[in-house]
Amino acid sequence: MRRASIFASTVLVLALGLAGCSGGKDNGNGGGNGNGQGNGNGASESPAGSGSPASSGSASPSPEDGGAKQEVVAIKYVIPGTEPKEWPAVREAVNQKLLEDGVNVRIEKEYIDWGAWEQKINLKLSTNEDFDLFHVMNDLVGLANYAGRGALKDISKEIEQYGPNLRKVIPDSVWSGVTKEGKVYGVPAYWYESAIDGSITINKYLLDKAGYTAPIESRDQLLEAMEQVNSKLGMKLTIPLRGGTAGPADIFQRTYDSYPFTVRDNVAYIASDGVVKNWVETEEFKQDAAWFRTAYQKKLINPDVLTVKQEQIDDQIKYGKYVFMLGTPGKLSDVKKTYPDATDAGFELIRLNPDKPHYRMVNAKNINVVAANSKHPAEAVKFLNWLYASQDNYDLFMYGIEGKTYNKVGEKGLESIMDPGTNMPLYIQDDWMIGNLNFIRVNDDYLSANKALYKADTEAQNFYAADFFFDPSNVKAEMANVQAVFTSDVSPIYRGVVDYDKNIKSALGKLKAAGIDKVLAEYQKQLDAYKATLKP
Length: 536
What we know:
By secondary structure, this protein is an alpha+beta fold.
């Protein structure tokens, strides 16, 4: 990822390739780009939401169907996070507006606790539960994984018939990240400048307090800075990140001579020369693992990194409880709850090796998909098409009822109205999850390091494989087995919990037994075919 997965009064509309985020999981308007490391802000823990995907029994004329009366169909959108207090009121306002606009859809949302997200969404899919839309974070469990399991509907026909606004507000380069051989597996969230991926937020406020004044230019300095802050200030801060299914730390990629490269599905290393390798066998993996091992042994990583709950990571990020974090931060007002005299200048966004070119590595990181078992794919697309039809529709679903859950600030600014009991917005739908840069509003309370998400990087380039979408259908069983081994055996090595030298041989053996060679061969075959379609 990622809010973060989920945030500047003015947002630039970018005509560029995009990679969206998981990370920054925030019920406070999107702080943080997602890369699977838990970067972003805001707590997101939730009970299941209300509503079921049954017909409401009423009818309305639908412009998409020539004005004929249509049965109003309820669709269920399943997402990670906590249900905001005012969602029931907002839901009714949204559904009334849908009815007034002649769209025969009633939207329901089911929120799933972050800690149970992967388990519960997999259970819903495996038991063919009746629901319609759900959210995919490519930096956690990717689109290819779900598509390979047969968990997604191809919605190409529905988009052709009911999605003109989707095509209008989402660039072709972003659509390519969800399209394979004419099949469209989801609607990407075009919400941020993806060249920002690989950035690091530095807590200069704490560094200054601890007397660490040297510019941070290497990965070793990151750990030195943490040790000095913890020692001088009597703190026990750790790096806010998770293990498990979370992918590689893209902040380090710029430090290698092999840059640019990308890693897909946690196992496929795609080099700039078009060669696909086993990521776990690369020197880059080994060096990353060595850094994490050092950090873990120095107690700069949570000892429970493999099982830590997302809401704990979100709390660290939201309130600035870090020396550095992977990705972008949150609100100044939240940080001030920890450090009352902190200022915007106390949080700086940096890159290692900043003089190297900036790349957009993937063009669709956050995606909303239609479940294979959905009985209402057309209605799901109609809803998304309605959402992106106007600023009014977007504001209503994303931010709620003006004057009750939010106030507009300037042309594209936003001030959420907070619940005094929880200090959380009364309502917000995270922009990182379903937002669009043509409509997004940004809370001016967000740190400048966060607002960089919405600024066009005019020097950025698209990595040649940014649009490449791997279809694992031919290696479905092998891919599932490989991902299981990654979680059980590879992630503990990568995150430094166990020693690389003592455990890598066993992990590689298990990957081979799981079928990684077949997976990588299929990756290479599809990448070669993709490259053949590129213009010279």
